[in-house]
Amino acid sequence: MYKHIFSSVFLAIIGTSSFAQNAPTIIPIETRQNVLVLQTDKENHLGITYFGKKLSQATEYKLIPSQSRQRDGNAGIYNSAYTPAGTWNVSEPALQVTHGDGNKSLDLVYVSHSTAKENDNVSLTSIVLKDPVYAVEVTLFYKTYFQENVVEQWSVIKSEEKKPITLEKYASANLYFIAKDYYLTHYNGTWAKEMNPEEEQLTAGIRVLDSKLGTRANLYQPPTFSLSFDKPATETEGKVLLGTLAWSGNFKMEFEVDSYHNLRLIAGINPYSSEYPLASKQEFKTPSFIYTFSENGKGEASRNLHNWARKYRILDGEGTRMTLLNNWEATYFDFNEAKLSELFKDGKKLGVDLFLLDDGWFANKYPRNSDGAGLGDWQENVKKLPNGIGYLVKEAQKTGIKFGIWVEPEMVNPKSELYEKHPDWVIKQPQRPEHYMRNQLPLDLSNPEVQDFVYGILDKLFIENPDIAYIKWDCNATTFNPYSAYLEKSKQAQSKLYVDYVKGLYKVLEKLRTKYPKVPMMLCSGGGGRVDYEALKYFTEFWPSDNTDPLERIFMQWEYSYFFPSIALSAHVTDWGKQPLKFRTDVAMMGRLGYDIVVSHLNEKDLQFSQQAVTNYNAVKDIIFQGDLFRLVDPKKNDYAALMYVTKSKSKAVLFSYLVGNRNGDGSDTPIRLEGLDASKNYKVKELNLYPGTKSAIKEDQVYSGEYLMTAGFNPVVNARRTSVVLEIEAM
């Protein structure tokens, strides 16, 4: 097969089908730097002919050769924009259906397309495809964010058949690439071991990333990846695509290298046990697949996603975040009003904005004194909190801080009044033993009554306590023994459960945000068990991991940062790990800063340091939240790590550096070449978060040009005596 190279971008092969037309229709999906070109063949099938860097002359897209689906006598290898199953295609399909008459064949031909501009930056292209035999229609949507170089892609499937059809597989996106080689970076882990990266070269066959966990779907693998072309991309070099699926349930991503060494990517909801019936005139909208492409390495690609996410997806992404003190590791389930009142004072003394009351505040018949009981019974525990949540809110306010609270509204303990009253609300097989994670089971959010109940938990809290300033929303169990009494009673297919659960969750969150649009909420799921860009429409931040060991967090936060900006990442100072308080604090400052410590146990210097650190953080957090992130020294490949955040104006920056390995007894004397500054500006460097009684190794009166800092570099002097260093860099 011949491969055509245009400006070092990837081409794809076009195929033939069954319906003739005179001239091809060419549809460019453009951002500021990149383009995806779709084109019909002589029989009106839609394929991908070009993906990568945008050509300066768009008229040249028509010059890209269109090749037949049938080459060398081999049929069915094709670069379809949305591959159907059951007719000419023998590759992995994006869409597979069973028609009302039982037939499983499907073909899709181009009908029409249109592009509408939402504003100067955002455009939406819709492309209508139809089966020429059966009354099935698919509309492909490509939403482009021009300046950010981000594409959001989904499909809407509609049936006009008289009988219901069944969607066997229904992907969000189908892309096709040509390159010399392909390198996939994906992630694995489990509780407290999230976001472990693995890079592999893709070879012939299909590599699958997926989840079948239902709730807490990201526990073992998140729906995110990076894909490098020709060679592995670095931070600053190489062609790379970052992709993620905006879906809070089971997902599946397939990377198929075909017999011509071309790559087909199909991403969407996992069809596992999720055959979805579609009645006549009904539509099914798939979740968004979001991606960005860069020819300048992973750093630029991640900044694309960060800029997009802050502006268009994360709730209040261009705003700010509060610092907080959480009681969990200070008290666990053992607290009362007096203990909490003292913690309010500790929070005020520390200088944070908010106190967060964690698990254990509710249930009476089966008190929530451990994780084995009470979940689902959302009344204040009268023994612990005789005066209720309202009293705590007022006491916190009297102390001078705000009050937030933990909930886990999707779940239930079998030892609860809710379980006793509504066993039919619980996801469980009626004839099999119950199987628990953290002694609990999910509620059935496919059931509208359960949706109302879950919404009511939060609504009641806000109605009775309108000054609640923060919510931590947890989800600690996966779905075992999937079965819905509601779907059975309403004579709907059990295979709808996995999908309708997530749809039900979004209905609750949408209703909640309509009434309470601005209350900050943390998305938590036993750590990072549910992190995606559909959920983050409703949450201001997420909890990356229950593992708060600062050394481990450096690695986790590094990997999360490819896909999510720091404003969305919650990071707490705790007693985990062996590192000193300064190290733990410096690491937590790379996100939304919180504390989960016993403030009264801090010695005089530790308290003084912590108070000053909160002040320092408040002075620079907007740079961390809204600045461009540059990863400078990779902790996986070096004994130390370094990264920096730079304002859009290049006038201010914050540099974080850490010693992560110490085999030689010291750090590195090699200067770090900074990035993102203005070469023509002059800068001063100041060290932040100095521990009381120590002096900086940095000459704060020295002036450096941006050119010097980015070319000759700067040594933050990280070593065994200075294991973490935070620097503020400011233009003069």
Automatic annotation (TrEMBL):
This protein's record includes keyword Signal: yes
Reaction equation(s) it catalyzes: Hydrolysis of terminal, non-reducing alpha-D-galactose residues in alpha-D-galactosides, including galactose oligosaccharides, galactomannans and galactolipids
Keywords per UniProt: Glycosidase, Hydrolase, Signal
Signal sequence residues: 1-22
GO molecular function list: alpha-galactosidase activity
Domain (Glycosyl hydrolase family 36 N-terminal) ranges: 44-279
Glycosyl hydrolase family 36 C-terminal domain mapped to chain residues: 641-725
UniProt EC number: 3.2.1.22
Enzyme class: hydrolase
Catalytic center residues: 474, 546
Annotated binding of substrate, by residue: 191, 358-359, 438, 472-476, 524, 546
Single biological process term from Gene Ontology: carbohydrate catabolic process
UniProt similarity note: Belongs to the glycosyl hydrolase.
Name by which UniProt lists this protein: Alpha-galactosidase
Source organism: Dyadobacter chenwenxiniae
